[in-house]
Specification:
about 160 residues, alpha+beta, Protein Transport Mog1p, Chain A, 7-stranded antiparallel sheet, 7 strands
Length: about 160
């Protein structure tokens, strides 16, 4: 059977034996926050989330380059931090996903427009989001607590 949603959406990949790219998140620290979940977001979830804030065509294009990911959720009892580290199949995939997630964050979250920060784009308003890419890797951080979001971002970016 298929081992990833990517193989379901792209049947030739199932026959080729191409597996999802393994992505390992380094340890994350944000004062007062504890890890409550970790897993794989996947192409299917990525498409679903993006389609709520950008056009279907943009969501499809950005999600199609998914190669693998790992997400982690941190919680302090009132605020949540979500960090997702993606690997694209190619460099352009990470770039497209970063651009699309930036547009999604600006349109879907109360974070305002993006500004260059720490070799990526930071969005700050009622919440916080950060998106950046380097080579085939793309980092996305979102939080209701801007300080915690920045702290988590600093754990990863610039590339550890």
């Amino acid at each position: 059977p298929p081992v990833s949603s990517e193989q379901i959406y792209h049947p030739p990949l199932y026959g080729s034996g191409e597996a999802a790219i393994g992505v390992v998140l380094p340890p994350i620290s944000a004062s007062g926050f504890t890890e409550v979940a970790e897993g794989t977001f996947g192409e299917r979830s990525l498409r679903a989330v993006l389609s709520e804030g950008v056009s279907s065509a943009q969501a499809l294009q950005a999600a199609t380059g998914w190669g693998g990911d790992t997400y982690r959720v941190l919680w302090d009892g009132s605020d949540v931090v979500l960090v997702i580290l993606f690997e694209g199949d190619e460099v352009r995939d990470a770039r497209e996903l970063a651009e699309t997630l930036g547009g999604w964050a600006s349109a879907s979250l109360e974070v305002g427009g993006g500004r260059p920060d720490n070799q990526g784009l930071a969005f700050e308003g009622a919440g916080y989001a950060f998106v950046a890419h380097d080579d085939t890797t793309m980092l996305f951080v979102v939080s209701g607590d801007a300080g915690a979001g920045r702290s988590v971002r600093d754990t990863f970016w610039p590339r550890w």
